[in-house]
C-alpha cells in the first residue's frame, strides 16, 4: 500500500466531499499512518484512523441520518427549541446525535479512547514528544484561553491523560459550529478551570502543515490535504447560504468578518506553492455547511466531484 498522511478540512455537509476523497484514496491503495481533521473533517478522519476500509466507511455513512444531525432540545419544536437553546446553551442544536453515532461506529471498529489510536514512533520526527504519537489529531478552539487545541496532543494543558480521552468527545468539540451546535466544555481536574470549546475552524480549518517534520529530516511519505470550502470572494455566500441574502452595510461587513474567520487564514496558506501542490480541492458548491436536508442526488454529485478531484490531483502530482 502507498502511504500518505492526510489532513481534512471542515465544512459541515460539504464534508461529504471529504468522505468521497478518502474513499477514492483507499480504493487506489493508500493507507494513512496519521490523519488530522477539523469539524466534519475530524469525523471522517476518526473513522479512517480507526482502520475503517472503504466498505466500512460507506456502511457508517449509510447509517448516518443527515436530517437528525441538527437535533433540537426539548420540547423539540421548530424555531421554539432553537431559540430556547440559543438563549440557554449558546447553540441552536445539541449535537448529541452525531456524537453518539460516531461513538457507536468507532466502538464497532475497536476504538473508544485515543489510547486505541496510539502508534509506534518508528522514524517519527525527533522533535515530537510522547503525547504526539497518535494516528489521529483533532483540531478544536479553546475560546476561554484564545488558543488552538490539537487533540490528543494538547490534553496535557488540562492535566488529562491523552490515552484515556474519548475520541468521539474530541470530535464533538471540534464540530461545535458557533451558535449552531452547543459549545463544549473541558475541565482541568487539577485546577478546576473550565474552558469553552468550539469548532476548530475558528482558528485552523486546514492545518495541512501539522505533520511536517521540524527535525531537518526528509519526510518518509507525503501529506495530502483535502479542501472542501470555496475560495473568497467568489465563494463568500457558499460558506453560509443563509448569509447570502442582501444585508444592510453593517451586517454585510459582519458577514465578511465571520466568513473570513473560517476561511481566510487557510486561504492565505493556499497561496504558498508548498501547500497548493499537496491540496486536493473539491467542488462542493452544491451545498452549504448546514444543508442537512441534502437529497441523495446532491450527495452523489459531491462524491463524484471528490473522486474526480483525487484522480486529477494524483495525475498532476509532482514528488
Describe the protein's architecture and organization.
A motif (DGA/G) lies at residues 199-201. The active site is at residues 39, 199. The protein is an alpha/beta fold. 35% of the residues lie in helices and 15% in strands. The strands form three sheets. Strands 2, 4, 6, 7, 9, 10, 11 and 12 form an eight-stranded mixed sheet that branches. It has a two-stranded parallel ribbon with strand order 1-3. Helix 1 (16-27) packs across helix 10 (296-316), helix 2 packs antiparallel against helix 6 and helix 5 runs antiparallel to helix 6. The radius of gyration is 19 Å and the shape is globular.
Care to give the gist of this entry?
The chain has 319 residues and is α/β, with parallel strands linked by helices. The chain is built from ten helices and twelve strands.
Oligomer: single chain
Poorly predicted tracts of residues: 241-247
Distance between the termini: 17 Å
Mean pLDDT: 88
Q: Assign the CATH topology.
A: Cytosolic phospholipase A2 catalytic domain
The tally of strands reads 12
**SSE order in H/E notation?**
EEHEEHHHEHEEHEEEEHHHEH
SSE class: alpha/beta
Please state the overall shape, judged from the principal axes of the Cα atoms: globular
Number of helices: 10
Report strand %: 15-25%
